[in-house]
Structure formats: structure tokens, C-alpha cells
Amino acid sequence: DKLHGFLHALPKCEHHVHIEGTISPELLFSLASKNEISLPSDDPAFDSPATLLARYQNFTSLDDFLHYYFIGFSVLLGVSDFEALTYDYLSLAYSQKVYHAEIFFDPQAHISRGVPYQTVIAGMNAAKKRAAVDFPKLSVEFIPCLLRHLPVPSGHGLLTELLESGHFFDGTLVGFGMSSTELGMHPSLFKDVYEAAQSAGIVNLTAHYGEEGPADYVKDALSILGVGRIDHGRRSIEDTELIAQLAESNTMLTLCPISNVVLKGVDRMHDLPIREFLDANVRFSINSDDPAYFGGYILENYCAVQEAFGLAVDDWGKIARGAIAGSWCSPIRKEQLL
Ligand code: ADE
Ligand code: ZN
What ipTM score was computed for the predicted complex, to two decimals? Predict the structure, then answer.
């Protein structure tokens, strides 16, 4: 398509990438070896980086992916592991003209296997510090995600630990999110955690909904959890009232097109409601989610959307401006990004 040069040059904001979802099979195996971590011996997918990569082509659902995603965590141990992972992502993203990156991570899945939150954030911060020198046009923010498959008290415990760190109020953490399995995980389960986050003064709240789950989960996340953003939100299109509400409130959906195809949320890219969201003035950004697992970083997601929908330059201008407006950065930074 003629727009691919334009899409490459377009300054981008990424709002939905899990740092643990950027570990390539090669890095996974090399860290397993360095850290003396044994990978599952009863699953032939873990025979080699090549067999693992091949298995990633056959995900059947979000939960099928999450099984592999959380095994990948096991090889991340020290500060330098988190630093390398984060720096490599930032370097690749910058090469695709990402100028503002908001990065998710899952502290509970590190703490629960004995890797302290402070180790994780120290590595990520070290990468951010190097990126400030090496990638001068890039701003970087971090967002911890509560894991929905763990018991609610574990989520409360995470929030308490994060609040005690002071990191929500010293610029280390820009907001608070929630991820992992969706079906059966109604927002009301986490009402108290989000209320506590809000009471403590955390302003930027988000949650993964509408990826596999119905539009009602999105609606209820907005009203019950008080989130100002929805990660994915794809299935919002099934509720016209919700679409009007999202447009009216300028609530940003952080869409992940390749992720939705690879995890079988939709059969084909063309089945995503991109045109409908544009026409209804629903703000959205286009993101990579777990690029090492799904086979595409942000530019590949932009290009896949373009190939499926043949958008006009004006459509992309609207997407890019909406992504800046929906970013969790200062008004001054937004001006710079425009
Ligand atoms: N964690 C990492 N990627 C995710 C996704 N696509 N949905 C829910 N939780 C996730
Ligand atoms: Zn995600």
C-alpha cells in the first residue's frame, strides 16, 4: 500500500504493550540458560526457540496464550533482565517512531515467584533512564496491572504494596490497570480495589475489557470501576448506547488488532470495527499488546489495519491526534507530540 511510508514516518503513541509480552523465544531460552531455570519438559513447544515460535502460530484463545505468557515470566530474575527486556522494547519501538510509550507490567506474577516488585521496577527504570539519553524524543511511562485470575485479596495486597512504594506519586507509575483472563471476571469483582485506588489518589485507571468479554463488561467497568480508558474494548461495538457514551466522554480504547486475530477474537482483521469506531468518533489507539507472541510490533499493527481497511490520510490524522489526546502525559508533552 502507498501509505506504508507515511505510516512508518507517523509519530506514534503506544498505550498497550505488556513488557513481559516482548520476550522473544530466543531471549526466553537464553535467559533460562543464564538463570538456570528449567522450562516445561512435558511440552514439546519448549524443545527450542523455533518450536516455541511455531506454537505461537496456533493460539486458540486468550487463555491458551496466557498459559505460555506466564511460563515466560519464569526466566526473568534480576534487575538486569528487566532492564534488557525494557531497553530492547524501547529501542525497537523508537525505530518505529514511537515517541510516547505507556508500558504495562504484571507485578503479582513476579512477586509470587520471589522476584520483588522493587527488582522489576528498578530494571525498568534503568532502561527508561538510558532511553532518555539514547532516544531523546521518547517519553516512557509504566502502568502496573492487577491480575484478574488471582484472588481479589492478592489484588488488594498488590495495591497496598504499590501505594507504600510512593511510586504513584513520584512519577514512577502513571496509572493502574488490570489484565489476564476475562470471561467470567465481571468488573464488580474488583470494585473495592478500584475504589481503594481512587481514594488513595490514583487518577489514571484502566482495565482490559471487551477483548473476549461482552460490551456489558466495558459498560460496567466504566460505571463500577470508574476507569477513564478501556484496554481492547473491541466488543463495545455490540452496544450502540455504549458507543455513544464512549464518543461523548472521549474515552480511549487501546485496540490491539494483530492480537485479536492471533487469539481468535476475530477471524480476520477486516472483522474489527475500525471503520465503525472512526465514523462514531470513538477515540482509539492502535497497539501491539504482546508483540513477541503475536508477531507484530506497533508499525506492523498500523500496516495490518491499513491493508484491511484502506484508510485515508485524514483517518490516520484523526487516529494519531486521538492517541496523543488520550495519552497519560502533561498538556505540555501533548503539545510536543502534536
Ligand atoms: N496480558 C497480556 N496480554 C493480555 C491480553 N491480551 N489480554 C489480557 N491480559 C493480557
Ligand atoms: Zn493487553
Answer: 0.99
